[in-house]
């Protein structure tokens, strides 16, 4: 907020957009730290990491597939995250979320991206993929956001159990 006011005072263009990481597993910055900026200055967001390096596709539920990012040399740091205690807890959540994705009729990866796009404070999300097919699938997700009813979102929230406290609640902690 300070950068915005300084830019205005100095007759400069203020920050209008931020590029935070945001996913089902990484929520604090967008849902807590930036929350007041959306209403106060109309901050827009370009989200990166909606699939959390592929974790949220569900492809690692049964181990590390050959040819996947985690099977490649140089990604040991990412492998450590997946195999950490927190990573294993997240994998249990992903297993449960995969059931919801199947009930809705989409893949786990599509569910993860649709969940990000469902947030009204997300202007856009960067998606990619290792194959042309993955990119095509990820681009179709805009059509799936409407499948995430209030009931589905509540079920997802129950599984995730990681909703950040509103800023007014955590400042006094």
- What is the helix tally? 9
CATH superfamily: NADP-dependent oxidoreductase domain
* Strand element count: 3
Within the largest sheet, what's the order of strands?
1-2-3
Instruction: Estimate the helix proportion, in percent.
Output: 40-55%
Question: Major sheet, described briefly?
Answer: 3 strands, parallel
**Residue fraction in strands:** under 5%
Q: What is the residue-averaged pLDDT?
A: 89
Instruction: Count the domains.
Output: 1
The termini sit apart by 22 Å
- The CATH class, by name, is Alpha Beta
- Secondary structure class reads mainly alpha
CATH topology: TIM Barrel
Computed over alpha carbons, the radius of gyration is 18 Å
Segments where pLDDT lies below 50 for 5+ residues? none
CATH architecture type: Alpha-Beta Barrel
Shape: globular
Overview of the structural elements:
- The model has no long low-confidence stretch (mean pLDDT 89).
- Helix 4 packs across helix 5 (85-104).
- It contains nine helices and three strands.
- The chain has helices at 2-9, 28-33, 35-41, 76-83, 85-104, 108-118, 132-139, 150-160, 167-170; strands at 17-18, 44-47, 124-125.
- 22% of the residues are buried.
- The chain is mainly alpha-helical.
- A three-stranded parallel beta sheet has the order 1-2-3, with helices on one face.
- The chain has one domain (2-59, 86-170): NADP-dependent oxidoreductase domain (TIM Barrel), CATH 3.20.20.100.
- The chain is globular, with a radius of gyration of 18 Å.
